[in-house]
Amino acid sequence: MQHERASRTALLIAASLVLLHHDAKYSRFVSKASADLCARVLEKHSAKTRLFLKIVRQIWFRPIAKFVERITIPGILLHYALRKKYIRRLVRSALANGVAQVVILGAGFDPLSSELQREFPTALFWEIDHPATQRHKVRACSEIGIERVHFVAVDLSAAGLDREALNSDGFDPAKRTFWIAEGLLMYFPADIVSSLMKTLSTLSAPGSEFAFTFMEKQGDGQLRFDSQTAMANFASIRKPNLLTRGYADAASRSSGELREVNLLSLYGRGA
Ligand SMILES: C[S@@+](CC[C@H](N)C(=O)[O-])C[C@H]1O[C@@H](n2cnc3c(N)ncnc32)[C@H](O)[C@@H]1O
Description:
271 residues; Rossmann fold; 2 domains; seven-stranded mixed sheet; globular; binds S-adenosylmethionine
């Protein structure tokens, strides 16, 4: 990502969530509160994103968006909706079963923590993101009174995970944690992913969970979005404290800890 500017992909995802919320077929995947937070970020970010927000809310724009999606990355909108739905389900289940801490790495403008802090009033949430992106989220959240989310601005590719900042905000490594890295790891080289995974392991009490999305290298060795209609690039690992190998060697696929989930089969083609 460019180091001065907010992540364009995070802005695009925020606009996609607003679009999905206004689309009768997908609106059940994106709550009004989520769409409102994304809209607030877009409204505040710049004149361009303000204009884009106006456009994505128009009915006439929907067929255009579908056409652009079809000729770029078919299925990507549904992919965003389903992966968010699935991650929310995993986190809610962990919180209902006694996990008290949720840390979202590369959170972007994801509305998950703002939604869950209302539903789980005793849980604590951290969002870790690049400062260039996070300052826009902090501004939007402070205006709508999101209180129990701690924001930690850090460049994960340079400084790694800022353990001190987490700890000084009350993070307790002796408590079970739910970690999330959605749409993040593919930006990092294997050694960074590996060291991040090790750090998460050392900060995780037994019973912690880590949910992440990943992209697999194509035949030519490149990471690239093709069609997202297969929707299979979601995986979750239980007990990250057992995980010492990184993403580069397929994130412990051989250890049996990795569960891959085909979201389309889970939620159905009509999702
Ligand atoms: C594709 S967006 C995903 C946002 C969000 N997780 C979602 O799925 O809606 C990637 C996110 O990773 C963050 N990111 C990228 N490089 C980063 C870095 N070096 N350090 C911290 N965050 C980074 C961006 O700021 C952005 O928020």
